[in-house]
Amino acid sequence: MTTTSPHPDSPSPAPLSHVPVVVVGAGPAGLTVGNILRAAHLDCVVLEAESREFIEGNPRAGVLEEWAVHGLRQRGLADNLLERAQLHTACEFRFGGEGYRFSYGDLTGRHHFVYPQPLLVTDLVREYVDVRGGDARFSVRDVELHDLGTDRPSVSYTCPRTGQRRLLLCDFVVGADGARGVSRAAVPPEEARTARHDYGVGWLALLAQAPPSADCVLFGIHPDGFAGHMPRGPEVTRYYLQCPPGDDPQNWSHDRVWTALRTRLGAADAPPLAEGALIERRVLDMHDYVVEPMTYGRLFLAGDAAHLVAPIAAKGMNLALHDAFLLGDALVGYLTGGDGDGLDGYSEACLRRVWDYQEFSHWLSEVYHGTSTGDPFRAGTTLARLRRLFTSPAAAGAFAEQYLGTAEHY
I want to staple 302 with a disulfide (CB 3.0 to 4.6 A). Which of 59, 323, 345, 410 is the partner? Predict the structure, then answer.
């Protein structure tokens, strides 16, 4: 939430201190901004509601685009990633009982890096706290943002160890605490527009203790609904199953899950799926939103606090890093040299890529879900798109460009 400065008659948060930047949220965006600031010898405080152990183990996204890895490498944040990540150069669409491999690496010379988000977060935390001496405070409670519309913003929170309220005066606040965090809620409705889109479907997100059943991502396009297979390591695979929005994960027994996966990912001559225990089951309601502008006073939103893109095209973590690169560099430019151009242009520069990725996700959703709508027209246009992808070099090139995120964003 956002408030004005604490009332003078109320209990005073203590101790009172000043720091150039307070970052709310220790995800990829917040930690990357923190690392950029520390590399420039600028102080900041990162506040996180969860424990360090939780954020380092929370299973999330795992696909990074080349430009994002290049940005991390430029900032000294990619050593473990480059050593341990898997490289993916192809994906496979399965529909009509056949498999169609799309080798975007052969087409473009580019690839994806598969590196689960918990590993990246672990790397970023260690670099920020243990190497660069950054101040990160975990398991904080009741974070409030104050006076964001002034040049003297502040952030207060409850210390989990002492139970005391603490107040941080700052020059800027980075809101990187996700879709349900206090930062997004701190922007008054009249100061920003939130554009929303609901796909009307759910995805059952599954993590299976089983080796991948293919060397690439599989997209199952089936009248029963979409299915996805995403390798996450030698012994763990991420699966998705289209389901009704708001469905109860408990409705999906082990046998029901694997029966649906075999049906929707079935293809002639394909090896059987490697089955294993399901160690995660949760339902995601497929929806998007974009907050415009991504700033309010001295508050700068980044990552899911500013925009949510459904995991249809695996773009979310990449967009978070794009925000962080632009924002971290802009803050350094202002705090070390008084250059405000980067901060002034931050929202517009981010939103160009955000909207491009949203459009691609929307297009790909129709490919994934069109045949399961029961509408013969949408099913027909879905199959036309898929056939074009494998018969038209121009269509294949355009898809690869958007899938890899290689388009320029002017």
Answer: 323
